[in-house]
Prior knowledge:
The protein is α/β, with parallel strands linked by helices and 584 residues long.
Amino acid sequence: MPSPSCPRAHRAGAAVPSPILRARHLSAVRGDGRALFTGLELVLPRGPVALIGANGSGKTTLLRLLAGALPPGEASIDTDARIAWLPQLQDALPARVVDLLGAGPHVDALRRVLAGRGDARDLACIDDDWTLEADLRAQLDAAGLAAVDLDADPAQLSGGERQQLRLLALLRGDAGVLLLDEPSIFLDAAASAYWRDRVLVHPGAVLVVTHDPAWLAAMPGILELRDGALHRTDGNLDVWRAAQAARRALEAEALDAARTERSRTRRDAMLARARIEQRSARGRRDARTENQSPLLLDHRADRADRARARTQAGLTSRVDAADTAARRAYAAMEHVAAPDFVDRVALALPEGRRILTFEDVHPCAPSPRGALTWTCSGPVRIGLEGRNGSGKSTLLRAIAGHGPLAHGQVTAHVPVQSLDQHLAALPAATPALDWLQSRMPDIPPAGIATRLALLGLPGARAAGTGDTVGWRTHARRHRRSRRVAAGRAAVAARRAGQPSRLRQCRRARRVAAGLARRAAGGQSRHGRARCARTDPQAAARWRHPDRRMTAPHTTRAPSGARVDHLRRALFRAPTPGCGCSRRW
């Protein structure tokens, strides 16, 4: 048995426990209180499966819960296998490559024994695995990392080379469940294909978070984390795309049907209300001509008003239900608005401006055979590609002034902004909106908030906590609350069979306007028509091509008290709570 101070280095091809994992009641909440998912259930059978979803949907959080990096809360994770987790970004690095592979103590013990300085603890640590160092070198050679020394410092390697070493450390162990978060990140095409094939033949269960189309095309199953739930598709990327297209078509049909039903319900309700008003008007007209007791007429009117209120309430509830169904159908559809920054953002450079000057440049070789001497003029967009370890990141760091080159010199003639692989420039504890305001002082906060919203970081998510769009959002919410309150008051008035405050104000305005016309000696349109049938001179006086000419004023003027009363009626302030904002 190996000693506690020397953990055994697991051999490739060791026996793997049962790879099945079952998790129940998985829940996660953001720092701002928004739930990512609640009560998820996940079953991982033997074999690889991809986990996809929109940015911020909780994929990395789900992997951290399964790996035990986050407190599980009420969740239960049942598995007999050991779980190995590959995080998306790792900050801490060991001192040597062999330690990154998890075989440092074993290789050190083997070297001491072969040098004649070993003891019983070293022999126990070796555990008859005398070819471990040679096996590690062979595996590095197969992965295209033959130039990487086991005693080298991982910090001096490229991001792609370090990612390959982490994958090798996971796959050569005895873990029955692998949780891989973006394993193809930093890898070139050849390295990505090599490790994809290695993952596909792993004997355990593998859950891979990836957006790489090549990896998704090779996966036999896809799990999508959408709207806080997991949706499984048995098949690769093509099968998933076909299922997505069918789902979107069904959602579009459901939305069209809901909108059609809403239009029909509104039309039927409008016609029903018109019939109700006609019956009410006929009843009032008949009541004026009938020779009945006033008590009986009042009782009939009361009963008719109650029946009309019940019918109006039923119509309103049906219209509200149709509106709710249409809103739910629209909300169920997937609305993805990906910003196209490449086409919409212009480089603020004049044509032909010199940008970079390369003088006999090579990022890695001190004595290169093919150095670069070139002057770059803009505006221009350039893609930089190459194998892992070829010096792409080193060249970018040199352009930004953050590191030296192995040979030559590069000069930047314009300001340079850089974003490294590990996002070191982004502070971990500072809200995105505050950090961007410090980096872009010329852009107002509303403009920065708009750009963050295009990236899917609206509102409190961009600021960490609180409201990010300031007084504009507050004013918008205030106006919305006023409209909602006025609408609710109108609905309540309709259900009670009473006119709303808005209708009362409009009716009072019409009455006041009629009084003003009568006091000024004018007549309404119907009054002018009746007068024209009996007075030809008045008809000639009022005849006008646009038919909107008002009646001439008579010499009779209203009294001063009546004028004051009409002025107060016409120009009074609106009734509070009626939803009117214009002064008459």
